[in-house]
Amino acid sequence: MKQTDSSPLFPTPFGAQADSGTLTQIPPSKTAIGRASLALGFPKETFTPIAAGGVPPYGEDMNGILNMLSQAVRASEAGLVRPFSASYAQQIGGYPRGSLVSHPNDPTHLFVSIADNNGDDPTKGSSGSWSSLTNSIDTIGAALTAETQRAQAAEAALLPLSGGTMSGALFSGGTFSPSENVYATQPIGAALSGEQFYLQLVNDNNAGTTSGRIVLRDGGGNYHVILSSDNRGNITTERGTRFLEGNDDGNGHVVIGNIGSASGKTLATKDDIVAETQRAENAEAGLLPLSGGTMTGDLAVSSVASWANTLFGGKCVSVVAGKKSNSYLQTQIVDGKTIAIVGVQDEAGTWHNWGFNASDGTVTTPSGKTLATTDAVAAETQRAENVEATLLPLSGGTLTGDAILLGNMWQNNLYSRTIRLRADESGLEGTMQLLGTTSNPVLSLGVTDHNKNRQSWWLNGANGAIGTPSGNTLPEVRGVPGRVVTQYFRITNLANVNYIPFPVAFAASDPVNEIFITYGYGYNSNGGMGESSVLYIYKQKTTNNGFWIDRSESGFQDAAFDVAVTGPMGASS
What we know:
This protein is α+β, with helices and mostly antiparallel strands and 573 residues long. It folds into six domains: 80 residues, no CATH class; 71 residues, no CATH class; 53 residues, no CATH class; 64 residues, no CATH class; 66 residues; 95 residues, Sandwich (Immunoglobulin-like), CATH 2.60.40. Helix content is 15%, strand content 32%. It is built from six helices and 32 strands. Strands 4, 5, 6, 7, 8, 9 and 10 form a seven-stranded antiparallel sheet that branches. Strands 13, 14, 15, 16, 17, 18 and 19 form a seven-stranded antiparallel sheet that branches. Strands 20, 21, 22, 23, 24, 25 and 26 form a seven-stranded antiparallel sheet that branches. Strand 22 and strand 23 form a beta hairpin. The chain is rod-shaped, with a radius of gyration of 50 Å. The two termini are 81 Å apart. About 2% of the residues have low confidence.
């Protein structure tokens, strides 16, 4: 699988703008026949043919399931690390080993579970089943600072290449065996291209001698032992002859009896040797011994090489720790910026380089990331705190401005986001949503009970009407201030002229014109047969407390009438 094979991200949960009646919250367990739950999924009856007593699955359940899953997927895709939840840990039997959670009050403080079935609270501090990832990073930072200080202290004791003074001796302790029973130290000397000139100590177990020798390696790879001095006092040349053997004539010259052959070379005098010894001693006083010492000057590599738009140090200071691991320090100039490179090579041969930018003081890690300074972190913290101070916390707070949820338009229809009010997790919910068109906007107010039964009222912005859950429109007395109420009641056993009191008194300023009375024939003892009279209402006698009616005396014995009265309940003038 390639990185490009990943599926598209979820920018919006499935059904985020679905109508409130087409998406339900899936309950933990089954609540009604045919309804889906987290425990059972779609129940068995939704897989049974309808002719056999089955029921079809609910579309709003499928919307609810996909909405729940896509919300969880979107949170993971956004990189959200969820805070520790004791209740969730109890529900799943504890967090598994390797789980990553954040501090409930500090999302930047992360914890890693190091145990399965982990229900301990990582914020308590005493639990050994959680590891603080944030504290580990701080520990690594402290360790890096300590290592930097140690390295700087060690570098102060190193000898710069440009000069300095070595107060101790310079030895080579490494050895190799050029032949059987012969052991030689690694050379100390100088190199020029393929040629070498060095000092070396040789222990020849075959001859029983230990000798120090001066060796020259020519460009053809041939070794020449210029001089060799053994522990028996013998000094020999490359040809095996004794060197400077003879008698001193008292004038500082050596009389040589036999030098092997006439090589055409001029032998040095004693004064020459003394002078050379003095010169060498003076030169050695300015060198740094390998066993230690103090360098007072700078150590610099001046050779550079250019590649593309980058200048590389042609040489570098290296520290070797074994055959496969080493480190180096090198300076580069990239696009006009001077960068000090500190590299470390692991045993697999992979280099890990840190870059120290002299232009802006930044430090780049081997992964290409730039380390943040404490000032930058403090500035980001201050910026975040300033932003957070303008946000409304989820746990509550006071909103001083307007809260506006922007919606969408589709074919000239309005669909706003839904405002949901929930008292608990049982499904009891109240909603508010703006629907309709620009010329006929409708505000929907909905209530869902614990059994998922939903009732909605509709406030029409075009004509001011109020629609009920049953599909009817509430009556309204136009031009009448206050709350308008309709009272329904039944009147029976009427006399010829009757005063009918209202169950609850109205508060109309003009009862005759603001209170509306309608009635319908209910029943009588003979089954409603043979009635020919009508019921008259004395409209002008209507008060806030009741009204008068008149009926015919024939055919209305034991009759009943259903009455609907609409009027204002506001304060009466």
